[in-house]
Structures are given as structure tokens and as C-alpha cells.
Design brief:
A hairpin with a 7-residue loop joins strand 1 and strand 2 (50-51). The chain has a single domain (6-137), classed as Nuclear Transport Factor 2, Chain: A (Roll), CATH 3.10.450.50. Helix 4 (53-67) packs across helix 5 (121-137). It is α+β, with helices and mostly antiparallel strands. A 6-stranded mixed β-sheet has the order 2-1-6-5-4-3. 39% of the residues lie in helices and 33% in strands. The chain starts with 5 loop residues before the first helix and ends in a 6-residue tail after the last helix. It holds the Pfam family SnoaL_2. It comes from Phreatobacter cathodiphilus. This is SnoaL-like domain-containing protein. InterPro entries: NTF2-like_dom_sf, SnoaL-like. Residues 16-112 form the SnoaL-like domain.
Length: 143
């Protein structure tokens, strides 16, 4: 995964700077620490929002394995006071995947909401298949 250079990285909001560090390292323990207890994840392929730190950690850890390859990068990022939109691009099995991560955080810089949107349809279908396989390999869903 590539992100902005060191000087640009330092100017990122703390939650997003931490997100980039965790994503590059695929640091699941760091991810869990970054998430608020009541964090919510919205997926392009799951109908209902997934609520709670354990579920959000599970989905984002699976996404690290599916999306976060040598081609993954964030070409554009936009920031508000407690939110950001990160445009990402990658390639999986020869298919270009474009998407955005919409991230919100609280006053403690813990992520409270993470929504992913992906295009084109061929990419959504592929990501759906790969995420299903990865989540099944991770074992039973936490209660």
C-alpha cells in the first residue's frame, strides 16, 4: 500500500495517520485499538451495517488480506474535522478496483464509522467473492 510522503503524512488527521500506518503493516491489534467500542462498518456487499469493535475488526482485517496488495494506493484524500474520504485503487486478479473509504472518528481519534464503496460491478463481484472466502477462513463470526 502506498500513501502520501512523510511531510504530507505528518499533516494528516491523527486517526487517518494511524489508519495508514495500521493498513500498511496489516496490524490487526493496532486496528482493534484504533476502533471505538461502538464502531460501525458498512460494506458494499453486506446489506446491514456491522456494529461493534469485534465485527468491524473482522471485516477490516479481511479487507487487508483481500484489497491491500502491492497495487493498493490512495490517490486522493479529503478531510473534515472528524471525517475523511479516502479514494483507493488496486488490482485483483487483473481487475481494476476503484473505491472510497468514508471514515469518521471521535474526540479520542478512534474510528466510529467506516463505510466502503466500490466500482465497477465486476470489481464488486470479485471483492464479494474474495471477502466471503476470507471471512469463512477466519472461522465463526463473533457474537
Amino acid at each position: 500500500m502506498s500513501t502520501a510522503g512523510p511531510s504530507a503524512h505528518a499533516s494528516l488527521p491523527a486517526a487517518i495517520r494511524r489508519w495508514h500506518e495500521i493498513a500498511v503493516a496489516r496490524d490487526v491489534a493496532g486496528l482493534e485499538a484504533l476502533l471505538a467500542e461502538d464502531a460501525v462498518f458498512e460494506s458494499p456487499v453486506v446489506h446491514t451495517p456491522q456494529a461493534g469493535k469485534a465485527l468491524v475488526t473482522r471485516y477490516l482485517a479481511a479487507a487487508f488480506d483481500v484489497l491491500n496488495n502491492e497495487a493498493f494506493h490512495y490517490p486522493n484524500q479529503w478531510f473534515g474535522e472528524t471525517s475523511a474520504v479516502l479514494e483507493f485503487a488496486t488490482e485483483i486478479d487483473g481487475i481494476t478496483v476503484n473505491g472510497i473509504d468514508m471514515i469518521s472518528w471521535d474526540a479520542s481519534d478512534r474510528i466510529t464509522h467506516f463505510k466502503v464503496m466500490i466500482r465497477p460491478l465486476k470489481a464488486i463481484n470479485l471483492v464479494h467473492e474474495k471477502m466471503r472466502e476470507r471471512l469463512m477462513a477466519m472461522g465463526p463470526r463473533p457474537a
